[in-house]
């Protein structure tokens, strides 16, 4: 049997691609070496921020706005809350490029944001201590997504829509053929007219020519009381420090705060190098300086996790077909900010597989820029 579309990797983006492609009536095969959601990829740890006023550049805004619509619709069809409108507070020096981009994209796309200076910010949330010359940009309609829950639901909905799911099935090779692609797996060979490679961090095991660097990252939960909770309207946040480091965090019930450092991490070349939280001396302590300076009331590290980023040279996404094999498309280089886009990236894969036009400018995301 020949499938219209085979999806290699059914974590965040692949699960969405399978769902939208099956919904559109395509014959879809979904392959994953694990059973998503799981802790071996990039989607675990409960939550992911979704921001619309985008510090990484305005080119992402039309994509994220469509992604948000699709997340909302997925909530409706599944009757499960996946999006928490906690608001997202971006904090940084007024001269920061990230802050400027976020502000510009808000004004260009008419997004609601509230800009405040350091004094106004601290008055509203006395938990924060921010340097003079800093600004806050609160996006009240943004928030966070329940990531593992969403991946599970997308795969479930894909199966209900008729996709064939083969999990615990490792893909070993993808070979272009005259009228499609051969996919060699631990359970034998499959053929499809098109393949979407959404394999996350280890995509280079299948497509070694891609300019992707896997990076080990940690994130952890810290002791915090109800003041830092969503109940108290404490928003999810991103912070750029005076040294140029970037931290992010989530309100978490009434008894914790989840935090991570976006830049840095350990470049790795094999899955075994993704050693557990605590294996590196700085794992538990990399946010200490940030906490002391910005959130001095937060307490000790409760526990942590490891994860990986698939980092492209410019930290922008790669959304393209392979130059010599247009029947193989790839979504990679999500560089630690891709979860929020999973729905729209899945929809794009489905449209391409159905031969439909894609209503977004994908030219900034081409492989040929490298
Ligand atoms: C700590 C951390 C915090 C983050 N925070 C945010 C955030 O706040 N907001 C945000 O938008 N993004 C965030 N991200 C980024 C986001 O989570 C990722 O960009 C996104 O989850 C990547 O999706 P993916 O589908 O590419 O990979 P994954 O979800 O990891 O899926 C890849 C799948 O491919 C499978 N696979 C791999 N190789 C093979 C093979 N050979 N054969 C079969 N299957 C294979 C894997 O098993 C896996 O299921 C964060 C990432 C991390 C690590």
UniProtKB/TrEMBL annotation:
A GO MF label: flavin adenine dinucleotide binding
Gene3D superfamilies in the record: D-Amino Acid Oxidase, subunit A, domain 2, FAD/NAD(P)-binding domain
EC number: 1.-.-.-, 1.5.3.-
rRNA-binding recorded as keyword: no
GO CC, alphabetical: cytosol
Cofactor(s) required, per the database record: FAD
FAD dependent oxidoreductase domain span: 4-350
Keywords for the protein's UniProt record, in alphabetical order: FAD, Flavoprotein, Oxidoreductase
NCBIfam families cross-referenced by the UniProt entry: PRK11259.1
Protein's recorded name: N-methyl-L-tryptophan oxidase
Lineage: Bacteria, Pseudomonadati, Pseudomonadota, Gammaproteobacteria, Enterobacterales
């Amino acid at each position: 049997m020949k499938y219209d579309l085979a999806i290699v990797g059914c974590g965040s983006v692949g699960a969405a691609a399978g769902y939208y492609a099956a919904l559109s009536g395509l014959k879809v095969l979904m392959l994953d070496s694990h059973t998503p959601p799981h802790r071996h990829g990039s989607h675990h740890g409960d939550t992911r921020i979704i921001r619309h006023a985008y510090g990484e550049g305005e080119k992402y805004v039309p994509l994220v706005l469509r992604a948000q619509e699709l997340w909302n619709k997925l909530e409706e069809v599944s009757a499960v809350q996946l999006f928490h409108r906690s608001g997202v507070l971006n904090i940084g020096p007024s001269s920061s490029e990230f802050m400027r981009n976020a502000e510009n994209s808000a004004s260009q796309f008419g997004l609601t944001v509230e800009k405040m200076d350091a004094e106004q910010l601290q008055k509203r949330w006395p938990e924060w201590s921010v340097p003079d010359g800093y600004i806050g940009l609160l996006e009240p309609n943004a928030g966070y997504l329940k990531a593992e829950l969403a991946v599970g639901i997308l795969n479930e909905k894909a199966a209900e829509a008729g996709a064939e799911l083969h999990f615990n099935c490792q893909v070993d090779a993808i070979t272009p053929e005259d009228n499609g692609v051969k996919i060699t797996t631990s359970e034998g060979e499959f053929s499809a007219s098109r393949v979407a490679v959404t394999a996350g961090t280890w995509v280079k095991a299948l497509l070694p020519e891609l300019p992707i660097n896997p990076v080990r990252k940690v994130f952890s939960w810290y002791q915090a009381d109800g003041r830092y909770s969503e109940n108290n309207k404490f928003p999810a946040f991103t912070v750029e420090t005076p040294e140029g480091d970037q931290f992010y965090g989530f309100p978490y019930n009434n008894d914790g705060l989840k935090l991570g450092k976006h830049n840095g991490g350990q470049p790795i070349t094999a899955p075994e190098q993704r050693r557990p939280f605590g294996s590196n001396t700085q794992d538990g302590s990399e946010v200490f300086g940030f906490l002391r300076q910005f959130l001095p009331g937060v307490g000790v590290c409760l526990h942590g996790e490891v994860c990986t980023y698939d980092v492209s040279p410019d930290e922008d996404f790669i959304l393209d077909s392979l130059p010599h094999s247009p029947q193989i498309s790839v979504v990679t280089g999500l560089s630690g900010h891709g979860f929020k886009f999973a729905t729209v990236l899945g929809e794009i894969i489905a449209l391409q597989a159905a031969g439909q036009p894609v209503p977004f400018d994908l030219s900034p995301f081409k492989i040929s820029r490298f």
